[in-house]
C-alpha cells in the first residue's frame, strides 16, 4: 500500500483515530529537530506549533508592512497639501524639494523640465540633453538602482559622485513627458531594483500635476 493511499483512506475514515486512540498513542516517530523519538500526538502538536509560529511571523511582517504604508501615505498627503498651497512654479518646486527632504529624508533631488512654457530663470529649466530626454520618454515605470547616466548624476553637483542609489521617474501630463526627476541617497539600500514603486509613481503624478498648474504645456513641444 502506498503512502498516499493510506492518507486517502484515513481521510474517508476519520473514526479510525477514535477507535484506535490507545494504539496510536503508542506510536513513536523521530523528532524532526533533534532526532529523539516522540509520540505521534507530540509530533503532531509540534507540527501545529511550527505552523503557528510561521503564521505569526507572516502576520507580524504584514502588520509592519501595513504600518509602513500608513506612514508613507501620511507623508505623501502632507506633500500634496504643500504643493496645493504653492502659488507659483518656483514655490511649487521649492515645496516639492522641502517636502522630500523633511518628510522622506531625501535632500538630494534633481529635476529638469522641458515640456512646459515658463519664463522663470530656474535651474530646473536648464536644458536637458537629448539622451536624458530620450531616457525619460522610455521610462514606463520608475527606475530604482545604483546606476545613473553621467549627465543626470552631474545634476546633483559635487555630491553626485558620492551618491549610491537612485530613484528616477518621468514627469508626464496629458500623455506627454514634461521632465524627469531623480531622487538620490548615499545609502546603497535606499533605492534597489526589486523595491516597490507604487509611491514613486504617485509622487511622479502629483509633481507633474502641480507643476503644470503654474506652467502650461509647451504648445511647440507638442506639435
In brief:
52% of the residues lie in helices and 15% in strands.
Topology:
Layout: H1 3-12, H2 16-19, H3 21-25, E1 28-30, E2 37-39, H4 40-85, H5 89-104, E3 108-113, H6 130-138, E4 143-145, H7 150-154, E5 165-173, E6 176-185, H8 198-214, H9 219-222
Antiparallel strand pairs: 1-2, 3-6, 4-5, 5-6
Helix pairs in contact: 4-5, 4-8, 5-8
Report on this structure:
- The chain is α+β, with helices and mostly antiparallel strands.
- The chain folds into 2 domains: 1-85, no CATH class; 88-222, Beta-Lactamase (2-Layer Sandwich), CATH 3.30.450.
- 52% of the residues lie in helices and 15% in strands.
- It has 9 helices and 6 strands.
- The strands form 2 sheets. A 4-stranded antiparallel sheet has the order 3-6-5-4, sandwiched between helices. It has a two-stranded antiparallel sheet with strand order 1-2.
- Strand 1 and strand 2 form a beta hairpin.
- Helix 4 runs antiparallel to helix 5 and helix 4 packs parallel to helix 8.
- The longest helix is centred in the N-terminal third of the chain and has 46 residues, at 40-85.
- The chain starts with a helix and ends with a helix.
- The mean pLDDT is 86.
Amino acid at each position: 500500500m502506498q503512502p498516499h493511499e493510506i492518507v486517502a483512506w484515513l481521510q474517508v475514515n476519520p473514526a479510525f483515530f477514535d477507535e484506535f486512540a490507545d494504539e496510536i498513542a503508542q506510536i513513536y516517530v523521530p523528532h524532526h529537530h533533534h532526532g529523539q523519538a516522540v509520540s505521534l500526538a507530540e509530533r503532531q502538536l509540534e507540527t501545529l506549533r511550527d505552523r503557528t509560529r510561521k503564521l505569526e511571523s507572516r502576520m507580524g511582517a504584514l502588520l509592519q508592512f501595513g504600518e509602513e504604508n500608513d506612514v508613507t501615505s501620511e507623508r505623501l498627503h502632507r506633500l500634496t497639501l504643500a504643493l496645493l498651497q504653492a502659488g507659483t512654479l518656483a514655490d511649487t518646486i521649492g515645496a516639492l524639494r522641502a517636502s522630500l527632504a523633511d518628510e522622506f529624508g531625501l535632500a538630494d533631488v534633481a529635476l529638469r523640465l522641458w515640456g512646459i512654457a515658463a519664463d522663470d530663470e530656474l535651474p530646473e529649466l536648464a536644458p536637458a540633453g537629448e539622451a536624458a530626454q530620450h531616457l525619460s520618454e522610455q521610462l514606463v515605470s520608475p527606475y530604482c538602482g545604483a546606476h545613473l547616466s553621467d549627465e543626470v548624476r552631474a545634476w546633483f553637483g559635487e555630491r553626485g559622485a558620492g551618491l549610491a542609489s537612485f530613484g528616477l521617474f518621468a514627469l508626464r501630463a496629458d500623455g506627454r513627458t514634461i521632465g524627469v526627476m531623480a531622487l538620490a541617497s548615499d545609502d546603497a539600500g535606499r533605492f534597489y531594483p526589486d523595491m516597490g514603486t507604487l509611491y514613486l509613481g504617485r509622487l511622479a503624478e502629483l509633481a507633474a500635476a502641480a507643476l503644470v498648474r503654474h506652467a502650461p504645456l509647451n504648445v511647440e513641444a507638442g506639435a
